[in-house]
Amino acid sequence: MERLQRHPLNAECDFFVEYDSCLACDAPRSEAPELIVYDKAGYCYFKRQPQNAEELEHAVNAVRVSCIEAVLYEGNDAEISRKIRTMPCQAESKRKTLWENLVEKISTLVK
Fold first, then answer.
1. Residue 16 in contact with residue 7, Cβ under 8 Å?
2. pLDDT tens-digit profile of 40-51?
3. Which residue has the higher pLDDT, 14 or 98?
4. 72-107 core/surface letters (b: 16 or more CB in 10 A; e: else)
5. Residues 6+ apart with CB under 8 A from 19
6. How many Å apart are CA 106 and CA 92, to the nearest integer?
7. 57 contacts 35 by C-beta, under 8 angstroms
8. Residue 60 and residue 87: Cα distance in Å, rounded?
9. Residue 95: left if φ>0, alpha if ψ -120 to 50, beta else—which one?
């Protein structure tokens, strides 16, 4: 898998937001308001990494609700990876583009 470009303001570590991909839907930030903020252009990023179990849960939930999978985890913790891997939006091994996700969601609504 190609290395994703992280938002340059992301705090260094395992949770991050992909650069120039956030739609400013506010769902991930709502799940982890102590961790995720917006830059001047309206794109979100992790201002800091989780520091306790509650914040870790918030970060995982932010990944869970990311409608276009722009909020990601690239760490080596097997338990976190398992939680993310079993989430419906992260279940496929091939990462879809924004447009593929939108077309898929729209086609299910039209049926």
1. yes
2. 998 999 999 999
3. 14
4. bbeeeeeebeebbeeeeebeeeeeeeeeeeeeeeee
5. 4, 5, 6, 7, 8, 43
6. 18
7. no
8. 10
9. beta
